[in-house]
Prior knowledge:
The structure is a homodimer.
Chain A: H1 3-16, E1 23-29, H2 33-45, E2 50-56, H3 58-67, H4 78-89, E3 93-98, H5 111-114, H6 124-131, E4 135-140, H7 144-150, H8 156-170, H9 178-199, E5 203-208, E6 211-217, E7 228-229, E8 235-236, E9 244-247, E10 249-259, E11 264-265, E12 271-272, E13 276-280, E14 283-288, H10 293-300, E15 309-315, H11 320-324, H12 331-334, E16 340-344, E17 365-369, E18 376-380, E19 386-391, E20 394-395
Parallel strand pairs in A: 1-2, 1-3, 3-4
Antiparallel strand pairs in A: 5-6, 5-18, 6-10, 7-8, 9-15, 10-13, 11-12, 13-14, 15-16, 16-17, 18-19, 19-20
Helix pairs in contact in A: 1-2, 4-6, 7-8
Amino acid sequence: MDALVEAIGDLAVHGANVQPGQILGVTASIGQEELVHAVAGAAYRRGALFVDVFYYDPLVKRARIEHADPQTLGFVPPWYGQRMLELGDRESARIGFSGVVCPQALDGLDPALLGRDQLPWVSEITKVVDDRSTNWCGVACPHPRWAELVFPELPPGEAYERLRSELWHVYRLDEPDPKAAWDERVAALKASATALNERAFDALELSGPGTELRIGLLPTSFWQAGDFATRNGIRHLPNIPTEEVFTAPDPERVDGHVASTKPLVLRDGTIVRGLRVRFEKGVAVEIDADENADALRTRAASDEGAARLGEVALVDREGRIGALGTVFYDTLLDENAASHIALGNAYAFSAGEEDRRRLNRSGIHVDFMIGSPELEVTGVTRDGSRVPVMQEGDWRL
Amino acid sequence: MDALVEAIGDLAVHGANVQPGQILGVTASIGQEELVHAVAGAAYRRGALFVDVFYYDPLVKRARIEHADPQTLGFVPPWYGQRMLELGDRESARIGFSGVVCPQALDGLDPALLGRDQLPWVSEITKVVDDRSTNWCGVACPHPRWAELVFPELPPGEAYERLRSELWHVYRLDEPDPKAAWDERVAALKASATALNERAFDALELSGPGTELRIGLLPTSFWQAGDFATRNGIRHLPNIPTEEVFTAPDPERVDGHVASTKPLVLRDGTIVRGLRVRFEKGVAVEIDADENADALRTRAASDEGAARLGEVALVDREGRIGALGTVFYDTLLDENAASHIALGNAYAFSAGEEDRRRLNRSGIHVDFMIGSPELEVTGVTRDGSRVPVMQEGDWRL
């Protein structure tokens, strides 16, 4: 088996912390079979009861968007959600793969129609994450077609070698003990989260090219890093790589405008480039883009909370992704290159009990990158004083 | 899109007779994506509500058999069966693909362990078929790896061309109107079934090389051909190709011995060669084989009905498969080359209401081929007279 794929599979099972006797639900795309096999082998060797793989096929979605009755595009068979809820009820492990497998799968389709079919995303994932019933991990899967998208200027074979070499570095596989390296990095991220929690800012101000945004925080908005525990205390790393510190904002107090600093790749593969969003009193009142603005507009109109923020995340420049300067067209990687915000649902555990009802609720969660070395982040305390938080990509706390 | 694959996809959707507004459940293996796309396109063009594809990955099964606790190998997550039952409750369409994609996937594994994990088969399929709630069709999907198994003496490219050319013929795609050709063939099969029903034999005697078997029939054992209707009257062709006329025997009255005339390929890909079975009072009391007898023995021991017969099928030599002389290592094709019997469950609609409780019940249904040009089939009437049914592959009724 390919050494990179095997190492990523091992990291995914380590990150999800698969327990003996657990079911492991895997969500993969057609084209990611080898990583599925690596994960299945590693999980069964750790004593998993059953590895249940759902393979998503983007070309079946294409056939649907092209030929099905547009009025039916929101339909999802009930067993998709039931599977997810039962994975939660049984306190299972979950692993999901990102990474592009077929960049042209949805080319030329009407973005408004695409926005109606959010598969492989199912809204029941939100409940399972909020319940903290599953231990899970998402990783990005290498693929030659993805490499051609990321490095279009290189011949295909070279592009794939370049992608593999960057992933090897990004996953810290060049460290003597990659798992220990991740433990160390996550500890540093948690220290930044703790410093932010101690300040208990009332708001953050973000200022940079194309961006002047003030984001209100809830009294108990709680900053976290990528080290979670289930309700039963099973620790897990939900993303590998992870380089972010994040919380949920006050969905009523977001004002100003932002410009994305990286392309946004939606879950179905649609790429939104040159995104610009203006907020008033928490609501995204204007969404523009150079490409595929409609796909995001449709999502932002899908329910009441879809046009409000559910997350704000800060990324320093110690992470290995931002330093590469590569656009991966994969949110899991790109969001860890730069500070970002997300339209839609907030994680319930991002605020204390007393503020939980005020968190944004939605069936969507769409991250987009607004960070860059030029982005300045300032904290505003409850007494109105202003404290530098991040400048030139470095923490100032 | 490949013309053969597109034509098979069209035939599958025609065979299942997919209706506007129906969900279509597809079961495919990794490696059969192109046929999935052909089927999805054809189904959505006919107005399907949703095409739900389950991709089975034999290498995930391999990881399980190799590494999981052997005691857990019978476990199936409940949502596998729930999906099947809900497809039935919603009166959906179903299409399944046979055909080998990875001949070595399960090589070298313990057949007894393999017998414990019957996926992608789930026992709930039996109820859905018996309820006649879904309109369905199974077709075989071409694949280069399959061609190498069927024609090992040919260079790989030539083997695949040969397989494609034989499938083109077997699917009657060389007829001016393949769908009309299937209508005609199914009408001829129904005429043979009607002739058998008019005789209402008490038993059949099968005699040929390695085979001397007497199979009792129930008073209302009902012979059918490959043209079904759902409880709501949606006609469909459950198998394409189909060349057989079949019924369910009396599970208490089967005596003698049989030798298989083609290799038996189990659903998980295990190949049982040189199979010999001896029956006493309906029960398979001895199961021997040159290879992998244990895989079948384990299945035959899986429940009370698993060692009794649920089907007897007669195949004449008008079919196109037998004439080729090719062993396809795929039951859907090979069973239509030759007369066969099946261990395990009987289709409930194979007998009249008054005999339905006497039909064999089991969680398995395993067909194996015992027919050849040398096989003579004799009908025994209730008054004991003997009537030739099939000689040299021709009907004698």
